[in-house]
Amino acid sequence: MKDRTLVQVALYAAIFAVLGLLPRFDLPFAAGVPITAQSMGAMLAGVMLGAWRGALAMVLLLFVVALGAPLLAGGRGGLGVFFTPSVGFIFGWIAVAFVAGWIMQALRRAPVFPAALIAAVIGGIVVMYAFGIAGMALVGGLTVMDATKACLIFIPGDAIKAVLVALIAQTVARGLPEALLSRNA
Amino acid sequence: MISLYLPQRTWLHAVPAGWKLLALALISLIAAPLDSLPFMAALMVAVLALYVSLGKAALAQIALLRPLWPLFLILLALHGWNGDILLGIVVLARILAMVLLANAVTMTTRMDAMMDAVEPLLGPLAWVGVAPRAVALAVALMIRLIPLLFALWEALNDSWRARTGKRGGWRLLAPFCIQTLRLSHHTAEALAARGGAPRRGRR
């Protein structure tokens, strides 16, 4: 592993943590519904770093959380979070970053905004909820149908986050093109 | 940052981290497939007794579960809707007991002790070309980066406020990403100048 890769992986793991520590954003176009920015971190890691580095960043984050750091939104952390019904989402972040990064790399020739939007929606919604619902069903003792019902309320917030991630990717591509590592690999 | 670690020593602090992790893993393996109410009630009582034995500070940490309540209510409601409220109670007791038990391990184990306990498990990573010591470096780097990034965010927020009088919120994310990437270039250069990250077969 190169030094730069190591630093970038640590950086996106840290960005994910910082997104959870920031005060909640009030999004104007979400009618003032506060959302935590944290799950954006997984989409961002994938879209910015590409599949492998993005997934590694999430693995590093979960490792540090398991060691006992309270880095998840609301100061949650430690081994306890791996026993909650949201554990599917938590492990899902690894897959989210990988899939979003993989799509971003596959669509390297496409314009940034649509490519990042597709990556964020498929990674951050389809993949994340597949993992999240599976975790909810297993830990909560629910059928998949019921687990889906319990998770659905979060989807609008995640759709907004996916759009934000795409906007950010586009802005970054303009401001510092080499920062979009998923494109110049 | 709120630390989950309890600074005052309890008897559980003296137990080696490896044993605590092993016990937690074993109990979770036993409890996961079991849907028996008496067992879950016993587990719950045992976990609460553990917390009482750890003292007041540990009991106060139970408040960490507060954000989970809405989810617990939804779970109970769904089970009640399906006419199996008993299963709902069993499931809830299992989640509560396991989360509290896992938190007890985190509360009484320092992060470096935890790292030492899991380091032998990182050995196989060398086969795919990742030195276990590079993992330790990545962990340290990430933890060091968090306050730096936080300060960077605050600086961006301040300049946004100076221009507009409002909080930046999500608009700061793109400049934030650009700035952090710059920061990471410098960090990588500094790391390379000091001999680089640990590699396989080199100490």
Textual characterization of the structure:
- The complex is a heterodimer of chains A (185) and B (203).
- Chain A has 185 residues and is an all-alpha fold.
- Chain A has one domain (3-179): Arp2/3 complex 21 kDa subunit ARPC3 (Orthogonal Bundle), CATH 1.10.1760.
- In chain A, 69% of the residues lie in helices and 2% in strands.
- A two-stranded antiparallel ribbon of chain A has the order 1-2.
- Mean pLDDT of chain A is 86; it is low at 28-34.
- Chain B is extended.
- The relative contact order of chain B is 0.10.
- The model of chain B has no long low-confidence stretch (mean pLDDT 85).
- At the A-B interface, helix 1, strand 1, helix 2, helix 3 and helix 6 of A face helix 5, helix 6, helix 7, helix 8 and helix 9 of B.
- Chain A: This is Biotin transporter.
- Chain A: It is a multi-pass membrane protein.
Instruction: Give the helix tally of chain A.
Output: 7
Number of strands of chain A: 2
Q: Biggest sheet of chain A, open or closed, and with what strands and sense? A: 2 strands, antiparallel
Lateral arrangement of strands in the main beta sheet of chain A: 1-2
In a few lines, what is going on in this structure?
Chain A is mainly alpha-helical and 185 residues long. Chain A has helices at 3-21, 38-49, 51-67, 87-106, 112-140, 144-152, 155-175, and strands at 25-26, 34-35. Chain A has a single domain (3-179), classed as Arp2/3 complex 21 kDa subunit ARPC3 (Orthogonal Bundle).
